[in-house]
Write a sequence for this structure.
């Protein structure tokens, strides 16, 4: 579904994404696991076309179409969407209107269902604004509900668990699974090896590169053994190998 | 100047009232208090139990006395519609409002000048809110697309002990023209004042807002809030002043001005003053372009850039 080919991004003379290759299959939850500062969010932005980032090299191919130079809007029209790590707060925009933005009106009942999936009581939230009166965790869950409502072909979830308390985590994971059942492929970006357990496939990322891709059990173990104790964040001693 | 018959004037005003977001049905029927004024003519007037409305014609407008009787809780909002249909003219509204002790009323005003090319609308209000009374005033303007209007609203408001005064002025459709807004509120013990102005300046619109709240009684609370969006060569200057002059008075000045483009100009001047050490007044003012992340968030949900900006602007002016 999405083929990232030799993607690079240099900013201020520094390499942020470095000749990165990644393949995401249709209907899969693909985890990208990496420590903080390894370029995961930048990768999410590059796929979505956000943040004014222009790749220094490489291509993004989505369903056989080169989307590398398309606007966010065009990418969204093709079926890609992004749940930000720190979602924007917009004064005067109600949760109800936010969840119905996508122009696929399926009725309020669906919107209510999406809120329930992420563990929020629709009656309490539908008329509230997505502004700074919501806590970080509430806003994150509404962001997830908005992705559910959009039913994208590819959902990019950037650190969906950050700011979520431990009790709310199951409903969040349930939302991701539900999203996948609805037909969305999911790119699940996280530093949390518990969250990424729901993925079908995991790629470990460091220093703007994918080091290794494989089965969740194997990759989680590899991450624990190689990345967690590693002092060389973003400077792997040996590419793709044990450090 | 075009001559209008009373019926035509009324129909024209109702039509403009609807354009400004008013509900036509609220101007019909006998259940609600209302007042429709075109220039210096009262086209329609209706009172309900607990409210007395008196009007007197002047050369260029109308003097209005609005009395809400002691203890009266007015269930339905009072609807006011002021305006001028011709392209040129002057309308002066002088309003004296008394909300007696323990009364409650909500007033919805629509000021409509749909064809304004060279129009001046002045409103001078003297408002007294009694002890434990509540007066909500919501005013929406529609000035058409020419921007040829000067609007000069002035109000001096006294709020008695435990009373509540809320004022909300919105000019988000059509052009603003020239707005020179000056409201000053004096709050006694435990009184609450909230002044909100929202406007969308376009073309060469020129907006001046001056909100002043004096928290003179212990425990009084005040909010001076403004939300402006400026495009093209519009300019705005917002002064929000709050004075904490009594123990435990709490006040806040909150101004956000969004500048869309490179030629619009926004100025914010918050003034906060405390003369009692137990009072607390805060302020926040933010001026800047429309937040890129907000735009990108909405674009990632399938809106194009102009639709995304529109949603953000509508939200801030809601």
């Amino acid at each position: 579904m999405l083929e990232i080919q030799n993607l690079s991004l240099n900013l201020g003379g520094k390499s942020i994404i470095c000749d990165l290759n990644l393949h995401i299959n249709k209907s899969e939850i693909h985890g990208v696991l990496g420590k903080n500062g390894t370029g995961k969010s930048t990768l999410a932005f590059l796929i979505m076309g956000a943040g004014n980032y222009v790749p220094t090299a490489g291509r993004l191919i989505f369903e056989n179409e080169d989307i590398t130079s398309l606007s966010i809007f065009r990418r969204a029209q093709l079926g890609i969407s992004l749940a930000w790590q720190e979602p924007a707060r917009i004064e005067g925009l109600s949760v109800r209107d936010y969840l119905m933005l996508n122009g696929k009106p399926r009725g309020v009942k669906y919107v209510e269902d999406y809120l329930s999936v992420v563990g929020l009581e629709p009656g309490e939230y539908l008329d509230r604004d997505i502004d700074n009166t919501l806590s970080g965790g509430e806003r994150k869950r509404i962001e997830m509900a908005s992705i559910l409502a959009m039913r994208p072909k590819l959902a990019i979830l950037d650190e969906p668990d950050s700011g979520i308390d431990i009790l709310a985590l199951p409903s969040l994971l349930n939302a991701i699974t539900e999203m996948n059942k609805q037909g969305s492929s999911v790119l699940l970006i996280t530093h949390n090896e518990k969250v990424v357990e729901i993925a079908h496939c995991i790629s470990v990322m460091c220093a703007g590169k994918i080091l290794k891709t494989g089965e969740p059990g194997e990759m989680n173990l590899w991450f624990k053994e190689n990345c967690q104790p590693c002092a060389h964040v973003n400077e792997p001693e040996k590419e793709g190998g044990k450090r | 100047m075009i001559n209008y018959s009373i019926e035509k004037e009324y129909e024209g005003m109702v039509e403009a009232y609807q354009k400004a977001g008013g509900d036509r049905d609220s101007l019909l029927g006998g259940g609600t208090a209302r007042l429709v004024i075109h220039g210096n003519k009262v086209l329609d007037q209706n009172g309900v139990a607990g409210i007395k409305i008196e009007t007197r014609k002047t050369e260029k407008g109308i003097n209005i006395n609005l009395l809400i009787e002691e203890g009266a809780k007015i269930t339905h909002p009072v609807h006011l519609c002021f305006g001028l249909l011709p392209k040129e003219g002057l309308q002066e509204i002088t309003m004296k409002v008394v909300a007696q002790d323990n009364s409650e009323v909500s007033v919805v005003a629509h000021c409509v000048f749909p064809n304004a090319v060279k129009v001046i609308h002045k409103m001078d209000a003297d408002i007294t809110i009694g002890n434990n009374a509540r007066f909500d005033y919501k005013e929406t303007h529609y000035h058409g697309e020419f921007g040829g209007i000067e609007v000069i609203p002035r109000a001096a408001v006294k709020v008695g002990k435990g009373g509540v005064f809320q004022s909300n002025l919105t000019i988000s459709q059509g052009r603003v023209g020239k707005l020179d807004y000056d409201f000053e509120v004096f709050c006694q013990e435990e009184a609450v004042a909230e002044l909100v102005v929202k406007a969308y300046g376009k073309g060469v619109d020129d907006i001046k807002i001056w909100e002043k709240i004096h928290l003179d009684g212990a425990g009084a609370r005040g909010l001076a809030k403004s939300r402006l969006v400026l495009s093209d060569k519009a300019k705005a200057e917002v002064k929000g002043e709050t004075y904490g002059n009594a123990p435990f008075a709490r006040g806040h000045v909150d101004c956000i001005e969004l500048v869309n483009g490179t030629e619009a100009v926004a100025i914010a001047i918050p003034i906060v003053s405390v003369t009692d050490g137990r009072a607390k007044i805060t302020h926040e003012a933010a001026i800047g372009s429309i937040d890129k992340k907000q735009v990108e968030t909405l674009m990632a949900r399938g809106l194009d850039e102009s639709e995304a900006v529109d949603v953000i602007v509508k939200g801030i002016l809601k």
